[in-house]
Amino acid sequence: EIRVVNLVDSGRVVTINGESVDSWVLSDRYGETDGKPERGSARKYLPSHIFTYYSGKSERLEALFRDHQDRFIDNLSDYEDEIDSDLPLRRLFYCRHPHSKLVLLACLLAPEKPLKDILHDLRIEDVDSVLFSLKKPYRLSGELPAGDIKAGDNRFWYDRTRFTEELLSKLWELATAPIDHTEEKTVDFRGRTEPQDLLYLYLMDKDALTQLKDHVGDTRRLFQYVEGSYIADLLDDVRIFVKHKNADDLIAFEQLSEGELQLLTVLGLMRLTHQDECLFLLDEPDTHLNPIWKLRYFDEIERVLKQDDAEILKGDSQIIVTTHDPMLIGSLRKEQVRILRNHADHTEVTTPNDHPQGMGVAGLLKSDMFGLPSTLDRQTLEMLQERNKLISLRANGALTEQQTIRLERLSSVLDDLGFAHAYRDPLYQKFIELMYATRGRPLDELFSPEEFKEHEQVARRIVEELIKREKTDELSDLAKELHLEVQS
């Protein structure tokens, strides 16, 4: 068990299994002497990788990963001496929109069934061709030292990182007629442009792409190298043309729907980056998904994290998902769910009262997880509330002539909408009458947890009272029958 307490005056206090340790144990993995990645004891306590996905654009969330990314770029050349088994997939991984193309590229070449299944579900049959657009990195602008020019590759603006040596040089070799030119690129929404040196490398078929993958090792390594080239500012864009089941001609990656891209990105990246003791942080990953995908979401996650279909999902990786959608949590147990509520001076974290599994969307919305008293529209709710209040008044003999006419009119309208005037269960009819006599709360207002409890207590008291009355009536009827039998 690891506990971290941040103190305003004295910094951070860290305890592991109840024993105090130096806070550096949970610090970044960069040494204090040479700045190179540290491979020591810190990895014992922290996740091997942290993968974060947000469905939109969040500057605040992205900023948390900026220092790590900057250090990765500053130390690109340090990785040239790393052993092959320790290829630098960044340990703090923030998913950006361009990553979806890189994931598709890897999935198209993947032999693993889970990745092939993702493409099958999206009706993507195969890759046709790929156009890599490279650019001159900003870090190579200006006059370069003679040593960098001598050590670098002049085809790629004298870049000398591992990505050029291992990936881009082979890409150049396989490409059909490489083209380089300078283009005015728009750099912001104001229309400001600046010249950009570009290089286009076109792989005309799947065979060429497979050769590139085999050169670096496997699908996962290809993704790591291409993603590293993107972060190193060498890769500007990748245009992928695929064969689609529902299209006669080839379609470009951009023609896929937002929901398809979102599903491909999250599931594909989870499969490609998954190792033991990973932490996956998914912030509203269901934004563009259709209802069917939402219901199957966690099943799909489990499927891509397994090595094969017969395997039981295991390991120490954890997944934390935030959502406002009841469909996404409908398959979970209550132990898997936490409800966060903001208060004036603190945030409250609680576990649901009941298991979401089996409740259905309407049940979830009306539970303590979402606090809706009903899933009906406001106008229908107002008519129901008014009708039930009038029914309660009628039960007490306090209904005026005008209210009687209004009740008949409301009942007629609601009957047409499928809401019966009289309830078949007489006990439930009495419950409704007493409930509205006791609680006049509008039906379209959210319930707080305290109000939920109060509402349940009121309902329970009414039910208990009705049961007592019912038993009393039954005993009275039984006594009458016995009395008649004695007389006869």
Descriptive notes:
This protein is an alpha+beta fold. The chain has 3 domains: 47-322, no CATH class; 334-365, no CATH class; 378-471, no CATH class. The protein contains 15 helices and 14 strands. The chain has helices at residues 59-63, 66-74, 99-109, 113-121, 146-151, 162-174, 206-216, 219-231, 258-273, 291-305, 360-365, 378-395, 401-416, 426-438, 449-487, and strands at 2-7, 11-16, 19-21, 49-54, 92-94, 124-135, 179-186, 193-203, 235-244, 251-252, 278-283, 318-322, 339-342, 347-350. The strands form 4 sheets. Strands 7-8-6-9-10 form a 5-stranded antiparallel sheet. A 4-stranded parallel sheet has the order 5-4-11-12, with helices on one face. Strands 1-2-3 form a 3-stranded antiparallel sheet, with no helix packed on it. Helix 3 (99-109) runs antiparallel to helix 8, helix 12 (378-395) crosses helix 13 (401-416) and helix 12 (378-395) crosses helix 14 (426-438). It is elongated. Residues 28-40 and 79-86 have low confidence and may be disordered.
Keywords:
488 residues; alpha+beta; 3 domains; 4-stranded parallel beta sheet; 15 helices; elongated
